[in-house]
Each structure stands twice: as structure tokens, then as C-alpha cells.
Amino acid sequence: MTPVDVRAYEDADEEAIVALWDARFVEPRPWNQPRELIRRKVGVARDLFLVATLDRRIVGAVIAGWDGHRGWLYHLAVAPDVRRRGIGSRLVRAAEALLQARGCPKVNLQILASNREVVRFYERLGFQVEERASMGKRLAVTPATRHAPSRRPACRATAPS
Ligand SMILES: CC(C)(COP(=O)(O)OP(=O)(O)OC[C@H]1O[C@@H](n2cnc3c(N)ncnc32)[C@H](O)[C@@H]1OP(=O)(O)O)[C@@H](O)C(=O)NCCC(=O)NCCS
Known about the structure:
- It is a single chain.
- By secondary structure, the chain is an alpha+beta fold.
- The protein is 32% helix and 19% strand.
- The protein has one domain (5-146): Gcn5-related N-acetyltransferase (GNAT) (Aminopeptidase, 3-Layer(aba) Sandwich), CATH 3.40.630.
């Protein structure tokens, strides 16, 4: 099999990533629109947005976040026809390596507790389910703040440590 390549997101990847996420993640809400999400991430930390390619086709993606205290993983997805070939694991390990290189001591992520298959996937990679109350609060995003430069601090209100 052609080897899978894991690399940083490039602008030309946008359509393929949108297609990959569309079926699985999109909710009809502005903060979860894939194009908006991609542009926000690229504006803040492009190098923490990873894609997996197979024969130059985008077959997976994951977003990592680093706030100086904890690392986070978001929106991991692998195309249905190439699952169970280790691509999701490659993406998570590559994201972990990037976070570790920045001095990140712990990676957190949130998934629906009912998504037992993905819990098993992450357990295989050494993650553990931690009993926490997951909290969040929506913040109004105005046109002036939507693509703010990275020197502005990111805000996050959440429970896991
Ligand atoms: C979760 C996901 C990214 C896994 O990607 P993948 O490339 O298939 O994962 P891997 O091939 O690296 O799997 C590694 C191991 O994890 C476990 N695993 C993966 N998918 C699993 C499943 N559906 N059920 C049970 N165990 C699973 C297996 O132990 C697997 O090893 P094996 O194939 O040798 O048994 C993929 O199923 C996906 O995109 N799901 C939809 C999106 C999603 O729910 N994302 C996570 C929430 S943000």
C-alpha cells in the first residue's frame, strides 16, 4: 500500500477537508461551519492543523491546540473507506509529537460519552476517560474579532485539567 503522509494543512486542502468533515461534524451553526473553522485555525496556528494523504488524496485530518497549559485535539476524522488502517493513530501521534515539542505536558479531548467506538480508539492510544463536568460558554464573535491575529489570547472555559 502507498504510504500515508502526515503533513501540515495547506490552503489547497480546504475543499477536501470540508468534504471530509461535512458528513461527520457539521452543525448548522456559524461557529462550526468547516470553512470558518479552518480559517480561524489557520489564522492562529496553521502548523497545528494536520492532514493525512494517501496517493495525494486527503484521507484524514486533526486539529491540535496548545494554550501554554494543555494541549487539545479536535475534529479528528478519517475517510470511511480507509479506516482501520492506522491513519487515525498516525494523526494523533503526529499531533502529540508537535504538542510535546512545545512543552505540552498533557493532551485533552472531548467526545460524546456515547461514542464508545471512538473511546476505544483513544484508549488504544493511551488516553483515559476522566470523570469531569465538561463546561462551555459561547462568546459573541464580531467581524472585528473573527480573524484576530494570534497575539490576542485565546479564551476557553472548560473543566478538564
Ligand atoms: C475514530 C477514527 C478517527 C479512527 O480512525 P482509524 O484510522 O480508523 O483508526 P486506526 O486505524 O488508527 O485505529 C487504531 C485502533 O483503534 C481502535 N478502533 C478504531 N476504530 C474503531 C472502532 N470503530 N471500533 C472499535 N475500535 C476501533 C482499534 O483497536 C484499532 O486497531 P485495529 O484496527 O488494529 O483493531 C475514525 O473512525 C473516524 O473518523 N470516525 C468518525 C469521526 C469521529 O468520530 N472522530 C472522533 C471524534 S472528534
